[in-house]
Amino acid sequence: MNSFVTGRRLARELGEWRSGAPAYRALAERIRVLLMDGRLSSGARLPAERELSQALDLSRTTVAAAYSKLRDDGYLESVRGSGSTLQLPGRERGEHSLQHSLALDFTKATSPAYPGIQAAYAAAVEELPNYLSHDGFDLVGLPDLREAIAQSYRDRGLATSPDQIMVTIGAQNALNLITRTLYSPGERILVEQPTYPHALDTFTQAGARVIAFPVRQDGGWDLPEALLQIRRAAPTLAYLMPDFHNPTGMSMSIHEREYLAAAASREGTVLVADETTALLDIDRGQMPPMATFSPNIISIGSLGKIAWGGLRVGWIRGSREVLAQLLRNRPAVDLGTPMMEQLVATKLIQDMPSMMASRSLDLRRGRDSAVRLLAEYVPQWQVQIPDGGLCLWINTETVSSSALALAARAEGMGIVPGPRFGIDGAFERYLRLPFSYSEEQLSEGIQILGRIAHDVGSDPLRMPLQAVI
Q1: pTM summary value
Q2: Which residues contact 218 (CB under 8 A, 6 or more apart)?
Q3: In contact, 236 and 189? CB cutoff 8 Å
């Protein structure tokens, strides 16, 4: 079923949409930006002209002209009696994005496959016949894999038994299952600001009322604001990424972990710690898992960032009581994790020290290259150097990152603008840039950013609509 976007929601998502151009063009362009970076989905039905004009305090004529511009450019289809539906020109139904057509795709914070993954697959193929008598439907995970995951937590100082682990089809699947199980309609979910956009997508799809507290590169997690939100709103869940936070790259201190764990425990809020980036260390050293500080914390892990995104194996670590709840609900989400992938994951987790060392070396090279290139080609931008993770969170000063995204696409480069990571159009002057790509790709991409940054400025309409698709 296609989603319907209300006037109030679209007004929030638009953020800083006005520019020196005519209002109808500025509005049409910003709606197109929202479609292209994923904040609005293809197939979503926009609000009626009258509803949006009231939400934005514009004349209906202006909104009608903006919709007409979107129709003329192929981004909107209107049918009398059925409303106006967003679409991506030239795309077939079911296709996910335009990114495959770009020569440089920096929209994903991910790394190439770990060099040892082929050997892990070969070993798994040899072992697979031993499991072919199994019916193949595995809702909790193979015992050997759950033991390997539990051991990885014990190696980090957190006592864990295999029956505290559920294997999932990646971390996103894990978050979806947790949300469907523990969240009830009308309740609130607390998130960081900025945060991982697909987590926001999960909570929005569940109909959650999302509230936020800031994460600042110059001050870390805003603990007083987090405590205020927990006490005032009593959120059911709080989602956070304590290690090499996506997109800022920051990590929580011991004090911050203790403080948030205690605050959530007092108020009955379940903390969900996304640790998919926790092992991507460059300079920091080992930190205790978030669940060290409270038995009520649920942890999410995955091999997607450290081994390979194509290996869809993740896991949930939680209390036995919570896992029992998840197990009852899981058949409505999926029927278990594939056997072959679990066997591969077991081999890789047993090789975790080598995998971490290899990834750390590659990420150090990428980070240092990206920082050097940015200083050379865009010296006016503010870049904080993270001690791990996959990306830089860049303050672009006066430059609109949505404008950059459009202009970069005209150059064959995909980037994700800052508002994709925020709520209500925040972070227009920020850009996430993954440094997990080759030095050649980073050099070419950052040179493109340097060229277009001076031309684009803060006005996304300086690039002609026809120049980007």
Answers
A1: 0.83
A2: none
A3: yes
